Amino acid sequence: MPRTTTGPRCPWARTDLSIPYHDTEWGVPVHDDRTLFEFLVLEGAQAGLSWETILRKRARYREAFDGFDPARVARFTPARIHRLLADPGIVRNRLKVWSAVTNARAVLRIQKEFGSFDAYLWPFVGGTPIDGRRRARRDVPARTPESDALSKNLRTLGLRFVGSTICYAFMQAVGMVNDHLLTCPRHAEVKRHERSPDFRAPSDSVRRHGHAARIRNDAAGGASRPGSPWVVRSQPG
């Protein structure tokens, strides 16, 4: 894929897979429910692994999980899951595979109540991406109050593999947060997508869940989680 940026990229983008991902996807606001579900599954699968590993397996994930259509994944049977656990093209972790199915079912419930997964997610950042304005990779947090709130709410709705650090990586990936470094040309390019065109004011059902209300949780300190782009790309690919 041709390069879309000039100047220094974020330092984690170093490989044939991570460079095009950085240059075309990471941090761009996403409002398509299927793509949002894809990143939810992939970020959960990444836990304890490198993002490079997930990028290598991404094409097979799309095939194995029916294009990340949550309605189809929600209907996966124990026999289908058993076959997935024998598929070397994905992360063959029983809890992670099962969580993709249970999370798909939860996403369907969210869509029914809120109209879309997108409409549920974006109020956590007020409908507009948070500009991290990071100057160095050491400035990028592992979690934030917003990811804490998202994690807590997703757990109450029955989702798994949605800890706060996983949620923050998800938020970075789908553009709820712009964590491209200020020195990276993609920071300015992504800001062109800053407004959420599909965002609408939180409904009464959203307010009942409280995720569009004030965020009370304090972010925990600590280094970025193993497997986040900021850690993975500091290691040999």
Can you give a write-up of this model?
The protein is mainly alpha-helical and 237 residues long. It has a single domain, classed as Endonuclease III, domain 1, CATH 1.10.340.30. It has 12 helices and 2 strands. A two-stranded parallel sheet has the order 1-2. The two termini are 18 Å apart.
Q: Which residues sit in consecutive blocks of at least 5 with pLDDT less than 50?
A: 199-209, 211-237
How many discrete domains? 1
Radius of gyration computed on alpha carbons: 17 Å
Order of helices and strands: HHHHHHHEHHEHHH
Approximate shape: globular
- Measured by DSSP, the beta-strand proportion falls in under 5%
User: Helicity level, as a percent range?
Assistant: 40-55%
CATH C-level class is Mainly Alpha
Helices, by number, come to 12
Strand order, main sheet: write it out. 1-2
Comma- or semicolon-separated keywords:
disordered C terminus; mainly alpha; 237 residues; two-stranded parallel sheet
Summarize the entry for a quick read.
The chain is mainly alpha-helical and 237 residues long. The chain has helices at residues 18-24, 33-46, 51-64, 70-73, 78-84, 94-114, 117-121, 145-156, 164-173, 185-191, 204-209, 229-232; strands at residues 130-131, 177-178.
How are the elements arranged and paired?
Layout: H1 18-24, H2 33-46, H3 51-64, H4 70-73, H5 78-84, H6 94-114, H7 117-121, E1 130-131, H8 145-156, H9 164-173, E2 177-178, H10 185-191, H11 204-209, H12 229-232
Parallel strand pairs: 1-2
Helix pairs in contact: 2-3, 2-6, 2-9, 8-9
